[in-house]
Amino acid sequence: MATLEQLWTEGTEALEAAGVEEASLNAWYLLSEAFSITRASYLLSRGKEAGVEETGRYLGWIAVRATRYPLEYILGKQEFMGLSFKVNENVLIPRQDTEILVEGVLNSAKGKKVLDMCTGSGCIAISLAKLGNALEVHGVDISREALMVAKENADHNQVQVEFVESNLFGNVTGKYDIIVSNPPYIESKVIETLMPEVREFEPVLALDGTEDGLYFYREISNAAPEYLTEEGEIFFEIGYNQGEAVTNILKAAGFAYAQVRKDLAGLDRVVYGRLR
């Protein structure tokens, strides 16, 4: 029987051969999950023979990951804003970049009514409900399957979020103080150039922003004034090269103020708009 140390090495080599980035780290996450171990317990037991059942589980996961199936889907979870979220192929995997968007909204959310458009896994809506002391949070998505995941995540994180199945604002009623959205914004032609983990396994519905990547920004911005209070605010996550275009879209839709905000790498990441 192999030891834990040998299994980690074997998994790393298999993932490197498959072209997986950060192969050693990926192998570690799968090893730690399969054997329910921490780094400390690994160091104490790495030379011991590994259990048969756990070894089989681990090697099976390595084989799946070697097909470029996302690590997060194998584990069935992803951390975001310090919270744990269930993920599967019906939802986009939450990214650290999106935490910049949420952190911006947190500064404004206290006591406010918030709408999260294109909610997916619910990571934005749930984070705002859990951390932002928002008065009320609604999450909207066209995908019924995504909303099922989002509802599970709300229950798991013990927050109240009302989820609505809707094609953008089609089934939305009422007024909101804040609209936040991480919509599909990748140009259709670019999707085929993405990493296999993304283009082959994550939902295209959550990625494809149509020909120029700006379709959903236009649709949401043009409709938003009808659903925002007089001093309503809007927050978009954007692609690194979309800041000027989305700012102009907001201004054309009647927003008095629009500003690009950068992420920690210095790239345009969020556009903030205010009606008045």
From TrEMBL:
What is the uppermost EC class here? transferase
- The chain positions of domain Methyltransferase small read 98-191
> Which CDD domains does its entry note?
AdoMet_MTases (cd02440)
Q: Which residues cross the membrane?
A: none
Q: Which residues form the Release factor glutamine methyltransferase N-terminal domain?
A: 6-76
Keywords (alphabetical) are:
Methyltransferase, S-adenosyl-L-methionine, Transferase
> Superkingdom of this entry's organism?
Bacteria
Q: Which PROSITE patterns match?
A: N6_MTASE
UniProt xrefs under InterPro entries: DNA_methylase_N6_adenine_CS (IPR002052), HemK-like (IPR004556), N5-glutamine_MTase (IPR050320), PrmC_N (IPR040758), RF_methyltr_PrmC (IPR019874), SAM-dependent_MTases_sf (IPR029063), Small_mtfrase_dom (IPR007848)
- Identify the residues that bind substrate: N182, P183, P184, Y185
Q: In the record, what terms sit under GO molecular function? A: nucleic acid binding; peptide chain release factor N(5)-glutamine methyltransferase activity
- Alphabetical list of SUPFAM superfamilies matching this protein: S-adenosyl-L-methionine-dependent methyltransferases (SSF53335)
The cross-references to HAMAP family, in alphabetical order and at most eight, read:
RF_methyltr_PrmC
Q: What does this protein do?
A: Methylates the class 1 translation termination release factors RF1/PrfA and RF2/PrfB on the glutamine residue of the universally conserved GGQ motif.
- PANTHER family per the record? HEMK METHYLTRANSFERASE (PTHR18895), MTRF1L RELEASE FACTOR GLUTAMINE METHYLTRANSFERASE (PTHR18895:SF74)
Instruction: Kindly provide the name given to this protein in its UniProt entry.
Output: Release factor glutamine methyltransferase
Record organism = [Clostridium] polysaccharolyticum
State the encoding gene.
prmC
